[in-house]
Amino acid sequence: MRRVVGIREKLPIAETIPLSFQHLTAMFGATILVPLILGINPAICLLMNGIGTLIYSYVTKSGIPAYLGSSFAFISPTLLIIASFGGVSHAQSGFIFFGLFFIVMAFVVKKFGVKWIDIVMPPAVMGAVVAIIGLELAPVAATQSGLAPAATAVGKVVEPYIANPQVITVALFTLAIGVFGSVVFRGFAQVIPILIAVICGYLLAFAMGMVDTTVIANAKWFSIPTFTAPVFDWSAIVIIAPACIVVLAEHISHLIVTGKITESNLLEDPGLYRSLLGDGISNVLSGFTGSTPNTTYGENIGVMAITRVYSVWVIRGAAIIAIILSCVGKIAAAIQSIPGPVMGGITMLLYGIIAVQGIRMFVEQKVDFSVNYNMVLGAVTFVVGVSGASISLGTVQLKGMAFAAIVGVVLSIIFYILGKLGIMNEEYKIRFDEDSSDNNIK
């Protein structure tokens, strides 16, 4: 029978290092894609992912084996901010708000539990919003892959490629490796098909002369990542805010899954309160330094499920390695030299996966669309998010996922009030009963 390594168990260094590299590899592909899409230096993200993970581990009293990586939920609103303000520094104020939101939610959850989340954003809305994140970004992937004109993109990520056979070849090759690798690879390779696809796509692009190696040659071996100061703007904060609730629900779900894998009640010990607090502090620091928002990573949960090694010391090792790699200038330069077609090919898969995760949420939460209010909530949220509808509130323009989330939240609250007043033509239900233990999660 395979050995199980406990959450607080220490392993010899000779065993810890390769296991830590394994976790780093699992999250590496996804966590560097986010800054590349947003035009942020991946080195600063690796640095803050590592520091953030160590902070999280300390705040949770070494009780939760979780790695914090770059969140995909903020890509769409951040691209909107970049298109509006011309840079990511304005979005950083939204990232800081996200961290503060998690810190506040830590105390709210400790005091009131989590039932209110289903009132504000029930699964019918949550699933639609998550799906919209992927659907809204799909045109960006198509543009980078040379399969659609630049006019269809949500925001300008790289220079558009138009009808270039080389571009399309590299993009489709990268996509094919990711697609077939996801269903064919076994063992640890099954956990990192995205990273393998990016590497293979990069090698093909290099062979076709599409990689600019001068940036790698000119880069220093040792280089401290450059920090970017935030520009505080309420417009950016309003655009970012709706994604915060989505990530909050994702955080709770990841903690529940991790608890099931490790056979521990992590919601109680060390508690959801500490988990949110640690993640929040990490994100405040990331916002001030110019990094992307962090979130717990499903890839690392998958590694633990396969290896049955749950040690936080292994996770801490991965964080330390990430910090070290962030200071190797040539590695950062190599990551930044990944051609647009490679990014386009792999994000065609990733954005689709994000959209499907939203649909999956409907299934897992057993959303009953034969009930009118669920059908209406999902329908309105979807249409507002993908139709291109927008609204301007002063200097703030809301559209896409941000607009859809706000509409969904407002409708959900109205439906809840109507249900309590007995005005609705059906009984209004939420997942948590009044006496549910889930409502008392600390």
UniProtKB/TrEMBL annotation:
Keywords, sorted A to Z: Membrane, Transmembrane, Transmembrane helix, Transport
Annotated TM spans: 40-59, 66-85, 91-109, 121-142, 162-185, 192-211, 231-249, 313-335, 341-363, 375-394, 400-419
Membrane topology, from the record: Multi-pass membrane protein
Annotated Pfam families: Xan_ur_permease
Keyword Membrane: yes
GO cellular component: plasma membrane
Subcellular location: Membrane
Keyword Membrane: yes
PROSITE patterns to which the protein is assigned, alphabetical: XANTH_URACIL_PERMASE
Molecular-function GO terms, alphabetical: xanthine transmembrane transporter activity
Major place of residence: membrane
Family membership noted in the UniProt record: Belongs to the nucleobase:cation symporter-2 (NCS2) (TC 2.A.40) family.
Descriptive protein name: Uracil permease
Species assigned in the record: Clostridium magnum DSM 2767
